[in-house]
């Protein structure tokens, strides 16, 4: 952020305000970690913040400090719309286009109060008064740490805020192994651990929360994997029937896409998940190296994200979506 942006934010936060903090739809560890960290920070500054998520977050994040205060727009539209209309300031975190909030977009579009965006995805839209956007960062949580520092309030970062930030930095960096993990990332988490953040415990809470059903579903997903070595590509599919068979709950398919990339020589991975209730095929893309899955998702599957991790969707049948994917990859030369 430049000096003007910093003083704009300082001015906006100089008197107590009702503040809405919004993560993207289907919020992940970084979206929940960053919004809740900011929530605790703004409470300390005597504001009245509230986190409003477009839809529910996975159970493995329910332990996050403050998660019990999060309002779910989808479950309580009237009340959430009222709170949004009364907000004097809106933070949008971990996304950069309002359509990523689903139906909430229509309410957000009508608001006239200032927006502040903090995000690390490609190609930000221009809806915010202040846009702190940088794709070099591995997580929005790492940017929130900077954001608080820019305001000269680093001393307010405590164990609670740090726990939220650590969670998002850890999940978005694949536990500190993705290339976006920098020496600065490690300096930030070192500071958080010095504040008392229980790093090992957080890892257990997030990743050792498997159910037997989830592992069985993972087993099926891995058996469904199709590999195209000549195109350095592999994909997984899961039908609604298979999700039902293993009593799928939100979060169960999180991270499965990454397994394909662990095959030697595979640099492009996808997972197609059929959600018949929403009439949608949810797709995740991952790559290793220079293949840009953000562009691929934008070009072919109405999505976007980062160079090495993106998402998209199809309103076609599962078979058709996969067929389309296979035809496209047959034309690709992946490094
Ligand atoms: P995931 O595959 O975990 O859902 O998403 C991977 C990354 O791509 C995340 O950073 C997520 O925010 C982003 N992403 C997922 N779906 C979409 C989408 O439909 N549009 C855009 N622009 N980004 C997405
Ligand atoms: Mn993120």
Produce a short descriptive summary.
With 335 residues, the chain is of the alpha/beta class.
Number of domains in the coordinates?
2
> Stretches where pLDDT falls below 50 for ≥5 residues?
none
**Structural Rg:** 20 Å
CATH topology group of the largest domain: inorganic pyrophosphatase (n-terminal core)
Describe the oligomeric state of these chains in a short phrase. Answer: single chain
CATH architecture of the largest domain: Alpha-Beta Complex
How would you characterize the overall build of this protein?
The protein has 335 residues and is an alpha/beta fold. It folds into two domains: 3-206, inorganic pyrophosphatase (n-terminal core), CATH 3.90.1640.10; 213-329, Diaminopimelate Epimerase, Chain A, domain 1 (Roll), CATH 3.10.310. Helices cover 39% and strands 18% of the residues. The protein has 13 helices and twelve strands. It has helices at residues 3-12, 29-44, 77-86, 104-110, 140-150, 159-172, 183-194, 199-207, 212-223, 240-245, 258-261, 293-300, 318-329; strands at residues 18-22, 48-53, 71-72, 89-93, 115-119, 130-133, 226-228, 233-238, 268-275, 280-287, 304-305, 309-314. The strands form two sheets. Strands 3-2-1-4-5-6 form a six-stranded parallel sheet, sandwiched between helices. Strands 7-8-9-10-12-11 form a six-stranded mixed sheet. The chain is globular and about 60 Å long. Guanosine-5'-monophosphate (5GP) is lined by residues 24, 284, 303-306, 309-313.
């Amino acid at each position: 952020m430049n000096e003007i942006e910093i003083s704009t934010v300082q001015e906006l936060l100089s008197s107590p305000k009702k503040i809405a903090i919004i993560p993207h739809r289907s919020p992940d560890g970084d979206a929940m970690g960053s919004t809740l960290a900011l929530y605790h920070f703004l409470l300390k500054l005597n504001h009245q913040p509230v986190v409003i998520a477009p839809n529910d977050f996975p159970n493995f994040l329910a332990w996050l400090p403050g998660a019990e205060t999060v309002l779910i727009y989808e479950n309580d539209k009237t009340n959430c719309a009222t709170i949004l209309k009364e907000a004097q300031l809106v933070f949008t975190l971990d996304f950069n286009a309002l359509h990523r909030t689903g139906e909430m977009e229509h309410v957000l579009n009508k608001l006239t109060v200032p927006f502040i965006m903090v995000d690390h995805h490609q190609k930000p839209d221009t809806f915010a008064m202040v846009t702190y956007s940088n794709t070099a960062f591995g997580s929005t949580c790492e940017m929130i740490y900077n954001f608080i520092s820019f305001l000269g309030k680093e001393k307010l970062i405590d164990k609670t805020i740090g726990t939220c930030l650590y969670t998002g930095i850890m999940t978005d960096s694949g536990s500190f192994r993705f290339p976006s993990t920098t020496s600065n990332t490690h300096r930030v988490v070192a500071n958080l651990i010095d504040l008392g953040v229980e790093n090992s415990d957080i890892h257990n809470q997030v990743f050792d929360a498997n159910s037997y059903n989830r592992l069985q579903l993972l087993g099926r997903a891995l058996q469904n994997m199709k590999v195209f070595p000549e195109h350095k590509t592999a994909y997984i599919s899961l039908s609604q029937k298979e999700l039902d068979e293993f009593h799928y709950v939100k979060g169960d398919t999180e991270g499965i896409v990454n397994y394909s990339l662990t095959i030697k020589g595979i640099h492009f991975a996808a997972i197609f998940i059929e959600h018949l209730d929403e009439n949608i095929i949810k797709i995740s893309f991952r790559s290793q190296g220079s293949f840009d899955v953000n562009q691929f998702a934008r070009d072919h599957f109405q999505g976007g994200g980062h160079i090495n991790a993106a998402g998209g969707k199809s309103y076609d049948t599962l078979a058709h979506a996969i067929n389309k994917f296979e035809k496209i990859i047959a034309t690709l030369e992946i490094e």
